[in-house]
Amino acid sequence: PRALGPPPLGPVGAAPRADARPCPEERECSLSADTVLAPLRAALDSCRPSVQKQVCNDIGRRLIVLEDAWAQGKLSAPVRKRMSLLVQELQQQHWDAADEIHRSLMVDHVNEVSQWMVGVKRLIAETRNLPDA
């Protein structure tokens, strides 16, 4: 997909409509990285007292990779949307649902998520094991 080159040139007036088409839900288009990353970072912070420093640092590094991929526009709308859902499940302590979304992302979008999803999976597991969870 990266080797496709620039899009064909067309009338200037057509560009805004073309941009709007791939994203029927406005909410999905405007998902900010922070909407997903802030709760993940908060979960990581809550794990720090009881989880090995090395594990937390690895998760933190992988969250940075996720943040960079999001900022550079390397994540497709379905991945962004599912990550948003995953975070919601995590916040509600629906561990199995969060795990299921993680698995579906690994199966359906492995090339997109493989570098950072291991950290998210570990974060789900560690958050699930917290004493107050």
Automatic annotation (TrEMBL):
GO terms for molecular function: transcription coactivator activity. Gene3D superfamilies: Functional domain of the splicing factor Prp18 (1.20.940.10). Residues 1-22 are annotated as: Disordered. GO terms for biological process: apoptotic process; regulation of transcription by RNA polymerase II. The keyword NAD does not apply. It holds the Pfam family SRA1. The keyword ATP-binding does not apply. Residues 4-131 form the SRA1/Sec31 domain. GO terms for cellular component: cytoplasm; nucleus; ribonucleoprotein complex. Residues 1-10 have a biased composition (Pro residues). InterPro entries: SRA1/Sec31, Steroid_recept_RNA_1. It is found in: Cytoplasm; Nucleus. Keywords: Activator, Apoptosis, Cytoplasm, Nucleus, Phosphoprotein, Receptor, Ribonucleoprotein, Transcription, Transcription regulation. Functional RNA which acts as a transcriptional coactivator that selectively enhances steroid receptor-mediated transactivation ligand-independently through a mechanism involving the modulating N-terminal domain (AF-1) of steroid receptors. Also mediates transcriptional coactivation of steroid receptors ligand-dependently through the steroid-binding domain (AF-2). Enhances cellular proliferation and differentiation and promotes apoptosis in vivo. May play a role in tumorigenesis. Belongs to the SRA1 family. SRA1 RNA exists in a ribonucleoprotein complex containing NCOA1. The RNA also forms a complex with PUS1 and RARG in the nucleus. Interacts with AR. PANTHER family: STEROID RECEPTOR RNA ACTIVATOR 1 (PTHR18834). This is Steroid receptor RNA activator 1. The gene is Sra1.
